[in-house]
Specification:
Blueprint: H1 2-16, H2 19-41, H3 53-87, H4 94-122, E1 128-130, E2 134-136, H5 143-150, H6 152-173, H7 178-184, H8 191-196
Antiparallel strand pairs: 1-2
């Protein structure tokens, strides 16, 4: 059900070309799909045998780890996009939209897979298997793993919080202007959708 429900907002984001939200929907869909398959493969607490090694090694572990980075990156991209609509409005030409799509792709897809690859360098085990949740990466507690893997989510979150603060300030400052600004840059987003997003 969670996988299917991800498709509904994904269609709307594809229509408005909100790339941060598109990639966020993609990562949520992937994470939900992995959780769904894992819950079928390891449905209870009694049997924790490694019965899907290729699934765990090639898809579940790396994509689930990348999803964590990707969700934070896509949330940050979405927040930055909302900030840019209010703080420095521009007409979204095809060239601007392509540049936004490329930046969002790098931040929400390329960087998460680079960070996932780096985590494989420092890991001590291929993956772990937990009841119901299935296979996932092994969390470790050493300084090298922290530098390579664990320090990035707080950094990405701080950047997102920074732009969220700037967005909130800009909204308070320019509340009256938001409707005309969104119409001016031809974003396809009305004020109601902007505030919900």
């Amino acid at each position: 059900l969670a996988v299917i429900l991800c498709i509904i907002p994904g269609i709307f984001h594809l229509q408005t070309r909100n790339y941060g939200a598109i990639f966020m929907t993609m990562w949520v869909l992937i994470a939900n799909f992995i959780t769904f398959v894992n819950s079928i493969l390891w449905p209870d607490y009694e049997i924790l045998e490694d019965k899907a090694e290729i699934w765990c090694l090639v898809f579940a572990s790396p994509f689930y780890l990348a999803a964590g980075f990707g969700l934070l990156g896509s949330a940050t991209c979405t927040i930055y996009t909302m900030y840019s609509y209010v703080a420095s409005p521009i007409i979204l030409t095809v060239q601007v939209k392509k540049r936004q799509a490329l930046i969002a792709f790098v931040i929400t897809v390329v960087i998460p897979f680079i960070l996932t690859g780096l985590s494989y360098i420092v890991q001590t085990a291929k993956y772990s298997i937990r009841p119901i949740l299935g296979c996932a990466n092994v969390h470790q507690q050493n300084w090298f793993f922290f530098v390579v893997d664990n320090m990035w989510p707080p950094i990405i979150a701080i950047v997102g919080c920074y732009y969220a603060g700037l967005t909130s300030y800009a909204i308070i400052k320019k509340r009256i202007e938001i409707k005309s600004l969104l119409a001016y840059n031809e974003s396809g987003i009305n004020t109601s959708y902007y505030y919900r997003l």
